[in-house]
Amino acid sequence: MKKKLLILILALGTFYSCAPTRVVVEKNKYEDFKLSNYSSFDFAQIDLPSDSLVPYQEIVDQLKASITTAMEARGLRHNVSDPAIKINIGVVVEDKVQTRETNVTSDPFTYAGQRSYYWEVREIPVNTYREGSLTIHFVNNAGNVLVWAGTISEVVPKKPVQTPTAIQDAVDQIFEYLDINNK
Length: 183
Hints:
By secondary structure, the protein is of the alpha/beta class. The protein contains 3 helices and 6 strands; from the N terminus they run H-E-E-H-E-E-E-E-H.
């Protein structure tokens, strides 16, 4: 029994470790991009009034710190005055509703008396959640040309204390995608 359980756990672990990435990149568009071709980076300047960023400043700061760590780990240095590549960050958070379809076995119809009714399949809400999308654009500073763009979407944790871990996970997945697909 223990041997079968161990084999099942190993099989599931292998299956999940081979799961596809959640990073979305336009197919066949950025195959020439290699992060190793650049020596320095900086973040694109934000052209919004500073007071509109106040609610998101902590998240933006966490994203910049995680991206800086990932870029420096790949040999690029942070250079504010003349970077080879600029990084533009986009964040969108949406409230979503999880639904399920009704069916006769789980949502049976009830009746009494005359049968003057009908039953139909419909979507019913079962949960609400927030989904966040992080988009990263790498822009060649010399020609001001987009050289790579990728997006990752995940469920935003309900507890604010879990937000830094979720941000780090999203950034890690983007750079893992880059490491695998853009050598």
